[in-house]
Amino acid sequence: MQLLTEAKRLHRCAAGGWPVMIREQRLLCRWVMGLLLTSLAALPAWARSWQVTSIERSGVPVSKVKVDFVAPGDSKQVTALLLPRSTLPEGATLGVPEGVTLVLESSNGQRVRNQKAPARLVLLKTGPEGESYKVLAGRWLFKVFNRLDFFNVQADTVHAQTQGTEFLAELNPGAAEARYLVTQGSLLVRHPGLVQVVRDDGTLGDTEIQITTRLVAGDPEGRFALTPVDYLARFGSYAEAQTFFEARHDAAVRDGDSAGAFNMLMALGDVQLSLARAEDARVTFERAAASQEAAPPRGDEAYWRAVLQGRLGRAALLANRFDDAVRHFSASIQQHRALPSREGEHSVEEEGTNLARAYQASGLYGCATRMAQATLEQLRQHYRGANHPAFAELNAIMGDAAFEQGKFAAALTQHEQALEILQRLRSPLRRGDGLIYHEEIVAALNAVGEDESGLGRFAQAMERHQQARKITRTIFTEPHLLDADTFSSLGWMSFRNGQGTDAIAAYDRALAVLQQLPSDALRKGRVQRRRGQALLLASRPAVAGEAFDASLRHLLTLFPSAPHPELAAAWRGLAEARRAVGDTDGSDEAARTARELETAVARREQQCPA
């Protein structure tokens, strides 16, 4: 705070802030400048700071220079006077004018120098664990003398791999391009890009993957786009995409490039996840784990083990193997917590979001809510104003849990927050095949609509479901899971409105869509249970019993031994249907099974570590 105050005073002095500067005011200005520069230079060696070691103008050493300066936590730019040994704090932004060259040395002993001016740099972080910078303009030379946990440029886009690395980083905002040239040692450059694959149903699937490129001394200058590339590759089928990544994996293995081979497996696994090929993704990520264990040590093995646990969790969640998903996500969180955090990454919070979703899918609604709330508090420390998609996901998880517990007003509050965040952050993106709406918005619209139906607000519910249906038809020309979800939501709306026949028709449409798609036992089981309730409402208990039996057959493939609220609800419905047709013994047996499941679910909730 003192630095910020003095910087503002210095700016006023340097700009001639008083109309007429009497002798005392000139002396005061000199005192302020001296105080600022002396206090900066006098910081102890262990402080998180950078010291100016030399200043040149047009190649000639000079004793002082004026630069643009933005203090940490401030947005106002001031003019500051730098001398040799002046100290710059963590979080400061430095603007170097044309013709001037500065050399800075961090408290770790690493050096940075601008080679082209004007140049602009944010001094993000320095400390025993590592350093981080953000190049805003110009060309900067970085010299890494000491081995650190991380040495990053552009929030971990560029990672210096070895002690003794020396490299140039240049940003060209006009061309939306960053350039890196390694003169000693090696760098890993992680850059995002989209790949597009034609799905089996003919629709297009986009996946953003991280491609990692290693640059070593002697390589040509590497040029990378500042934003995800549309497209790194396009594939006419999954088989074509698989062949592409496998070929590059095999080439990397032949070249002895273990890092390249690992990266290709990670990219292939991410594509498989995006195409809902859960088992393929699991196998690929297990191959990646095995290849990493067999490769020579690189120093980041523990980090990637934690990442792989998270990827395996996502594959398990996609395959409806919820207990496995909980196990993998929990392991990922534990392993990430044991590691130094990477600049620009919040992996614990990301996996916390995934773990909350896995708990919710497992039917542990209280546990899911607690995990989501805890993760939300952690995220608020990193992102202001809910400016991250994870806020939407966490609100959706809490909304889903509240809905399943019959708390429709609480669910509506959470789901509306999720929808607002998604509509703000997930605006339509223009891709090569036209305007694509994010599928998460469809799910959020249907969730809000179901909450409205639960509260008896049917006109509002219908409006939400119509919006969801319109967006789905914009994206997909063939039947899709989103169609089934919307029909199921419309069935719920009719059921809550006392319109049993309309509800049955909507559920039948949902089942017809699901029959055309890869098996989804959880969705089928849920729709059949809801259909059974609608059949009871329509006074058709015999057919309702068949629907509840079908629901149980689907659900028991997922939960043969683990208790789940969906199972309990299906047994409850079956008990009611049997009672309505006079099967008292069968009804009592079904009701007893439902009570046992509900007790077991409550016991699991108590044992949940969240």
From TrEMBL:
Biased composition (Basic and acidic residues): 589-610
InterPro entries membership: TPR-like_helical_dom_sf, TPR_rpt
SUPFAM superfamilies: TPR-like
Signal peptide: none
Organism domain of life: Bacteria
Gene3D superfamilies the record matches: Tetratricopeptide repeat domain
Location of region: Disordered: 582-610
Protein name per UniProt: Tetratricopeptide repeat protein
Biological source species: Azohydromonas caseinilytica
